[in-house]
Structures are given as structure tokens and as C-alpha cells.
Amino acid sequence: MGRKITKDKINKRGYNKFLEISKGVEVTINQEKIDEDAKWDGLKGYITSTDLSGEDVIKQYTGLWVVERAFRISKGNLEMRPMFHFTERRIEAHVCICFIAYKVYKELQRLLPTYGIHMSVDKVLKIAKTIPTVYVKLPNGKIINKTLFLTDEQGQIKPLFDM
Questions:
Q1: Rounded distance between C-alpha atoms, residue 94 and residue 82, angstroms
Q2: Number of folded domains in the chain?
Q3: Over the stretch 49-86, which tens digit does the pLDDT of each residue have?
Q4: Residues 6, 37 within the same domain
Q5: Are residues 9 and 53 in the same domain?
Q6: What is the DSSP letter of 2?
Q7: pTM of the predicted model, to two decimals?
């Protein structure tokens, strides 16, 4: 049996603004609200307090997705979280490390197609974490290492290790 829908369980956001509840359980679509809302379809408005011209505001706004994507990558893919530092030097160092991590991520994203690797950066990083390196100490004291590409996926990203 499904859950009972009540007025206090329905917000007025999204498609819910087109619904009406009567007698506790009956939900109907309010066509008047849909028609009223349709007059705004395809329109976009900007409100700003700057002295920029309308064209400049629109131009700046169209590039906003790049900034939003950068934040999404840094918070999601790179798992960066706020750090609480109390000296200016540590704050600057933290910002620098975050910027470098983002730059490395974007550079890897740029390089993948040039090496014929058709995977996301996240998938490549996940695979790279599984690639072992063996270190052997020779009798003369010299240490040699060998990176082992054991699976097909690991072999696909091998060109990145040969740079």
C-alpha cells in the first residue's frame, strides 16, 4: 500500500505547484496554473546591482557554468573540504594546493584524448590507484622499481605513465 498524500507533505516547488489536494487524498492537475506558468517558458531574466551593460551581464553569466563546474569538481571529484587554518601562510598554502589539484585534474582531462584513452578522469584515477609498483634492492645497494600493469584497464592507461 502506498503512502497517504497530505497537504503538509507537498511543497509548492517544481511540478507540485500544479497540483491541488482535496478531501485529503485526491490529487488533480490544475491546468490554469500550468497555462499561467507557460507564459514564462523560454524566458530568462537577470537582476544585477552592477553598472555593466545588459550585453555584458549576459556575457558574464554565460560563462558561469565554467566556475560552477570547477567548484563541483573540487568538492566532488577531488573531495576538497573546508580546512580551518589560522595563519595567512597556511591559508595561502591550502588554496595553492587546491588550485594545483584542480589544474592537474583538468590537465589529465585534456591529455586523455591525445593518448587515445576514452575514459573519464575519475575512472583513470580509480584504475591508477590499483597499479602496483615493485621495489627491489640489489646486492650492490641500488634500488630498482617496476610498475606492473596487470589488467587490460591498467594497460589502457599505461601511456600516461610513459610520459
A1: 10
A2: 3
A3: 889 898 888 888 888 888 888 888 887 777 777 778 78
A4: yes
A5: no
A6: P
A7: 0.56
Residues β-bridged to residue 29: 19
- 37, 16 Cβ separation under 8 angstroms: no
Name residue 137's beta-bridge partners: 143
User: What distance in Å separates the CA atoms of residue 108 and residue 132, rounded to the nearest whole number?
Assistant: 20
- The sign of the dihedral angle between the CA atoms of 65, 71, 73, 77 is negative
Q: Cell numbers at residue 146, please?
A: 617496476
- The whole-angstrom separation of Cα 160 and Cα 33 is 56
Could you tell me if 124 and 144 lie in one domain? yes
Instruction: Give yes or no: residues 99 and 141 share one domain.
Output: no
- The DSSP output letter for 127 is H
CB 115 within 8 A of CB 156: no
Check whether residue 93 and residue 127 sit in a common domain.
no
Residues 53 and 105 in one domain: yes
Query: What is the C-alpha to C-alpha distance for residues 62 and 56, in angstroms, rounded to an integer?
Result: 10
Same domain for 54 and 38, yes or no, is no
pLDDT tier at 25, thresholds 50, 70, 90: low
Nearest to 131 by CA among 101, 158, 162, 104: 158
Range of the domain at 84: 44-114
Distance between CA atoms of 75 and 66, rounded to whole angstroms?
A: 14
34 plus 83 within the same structural domain: no
